[in-house]
Amino acid sequence: MPYSPDILEQWRARLQALGLEEEAAALLEATGPLNLLGAQLVYLGQPLLRGWLPEDGLNTLATMLEDPQHTRAFVQQLREGQR
Predict the structure, then answer these.
(1) Structural contact between residues 35 and 28, judged by C-beta atoms closer than 8 angstroms
(2) How far apart are CA 16 and CA 56, in angstroms?
(3) Residue 8: closest CA among 52, 62, 47, 82
(4) 33 by DSSP, 3-state: which?
(5) Of 37, 25, 6, 36, nearest to 80 (Cα)?
(6) What is the pTM of this model?
(7) Could you give the dihedral angle defined by the CA atoms of residues 50, 22, 32 and 1, in that order, rounded to the nearest 10 degrees?
(8) Helices (runs of H) and strands (runs of E) counted in the chain
(9) What digits encode the pLDDT tens for the residues 24-68?
């Protein structure tokens, strides 16, 4: 699956615009090992979500959730964006 830091930056910007970056960071940290399950749910939900979100954005989100290192880096980006 493709992994795009640029797409994650778009996700971060969307969350920041909604004022949800801290909530998203806390959720990602709290769910830890369940993030893999979240990735699978994103893959399974792609046919329904494609109407609202671009497929490359969904793939990048799922790939990030599958890899704890990428998830930690994204959480750090979310938290740094608040400063």
Answers:
(1) yes
(2) 20
(3) 62
(4) helix
(5) 25
(6) 0.84
(7) 30
(8) 5, 0
(9) 999 999 999 899 999 999 999 999 988 888 888 899 999 999 999
